[in-house]
Amino acid sequence: MPQKGFPRQLRLLNAGDFSHVFEQADLKVHGKSMMALVRLSTRGYPRLGLVVSKKNVKRAVDRNRFKRLVRESVRLRQDHLPSVDIVVLARRGVQDIDNDTLHRQLHGMWKRLQRDAQAVIAAPTPERDT
Q1: What is the pTM of this model?
Q2: What number of H helices and E strands is found in the chain?
Q3: HSE-CB of 65 using CA atoms within 13 angstroms
Q4: Are 8 and 45 in contact (CB under 8 A)?
Q5: Could you give the 3-state DSSP secondary structure of residue 38?
Q6: Residue 65's closest CA among 108, 32, 96, 36?
Q7: What is d(CA 7, CA 74) in angstroms, rounded to the nearest whole number?
Q8: What residues of the chain score a pLDDT lower than 50?
Q9: What is the pLDDT of residue 31?
Q10: pLDDT at 18
Q11: What is the DSSP string of 41-94?
Q12: What's the start-to-end Cα distance of the chain, in Å?
C-alpha cells in the first residue's frame, strides 16, 4: 500500500523554491478563485507551495481552511500527479466557496494539470533536443 502522508519532501519550503516556480512557470492552471503555477521537475514526485495573502483572504481561519483542503487534495492525489513543483495562489472570494465545491475545483485543476503537463513534456523544445 503506497504512503499517503505529506512529508517535507513534498513541500516547497524556502523562498528559492517559490521564486524558481514564479520566474519560470511552465504551466498555469486556473480555478474559480485560485490559480496554480507549475514548473516541471525531475525529482519524481510533486511538491506543493501555497500563497494565501491577508489582502485576498482576511480571516486566518479561512486562510488555514483553504491551505488544509489544498494540502489534503494533493496528499490524496500525489501518486497521480506528474513530477512538478506547484504553487497555488488564493484569490479573492475563495473563503466563500464551500468545502465540497473546493474539492471538486481542485480535482478538476489536477486533472487539467496532468493533461497539460503531458502535452508540455511531449512537445519538443530547443532546450530538450540538445
Answers
A1: 0.86
A2: 4, 4
A3: 15
A4: no
A5: strand
A6: 96
A7: 12
A8: 1, 128-130
A9: 87
A10: 93
A11: -SSSS-EEEEE--TTTS-SHHHHHHHHHHHHHHHHHHTTTS-SEEEEEEE-TTG
A12: 39
Q: Which residues contact 94 (CB under 8 A, 6 or more apart)?
A: 33, 34, 52, 56, 57, 62, 66, 102
* Alpha-carbon gap, residue 38 to 27, rounded angstroms: 5
Encoded amino acid at 9, one letter: Q
Distance of CA 35 to the CA centre of its chain: 8
Q: Report how far residue 98's alpha carbon sits from residue 77's, in angstroms, rounded to the nearest whole number.
A: 20
Number of residues that make up the chain: 130
Burial class (CB in 10 A: 0-12, 13-18, 19+), 67: middle
The predicted pLDDT at position 120 comes to 85
Predicted local confidence at residue 1, as pLDDT: 42
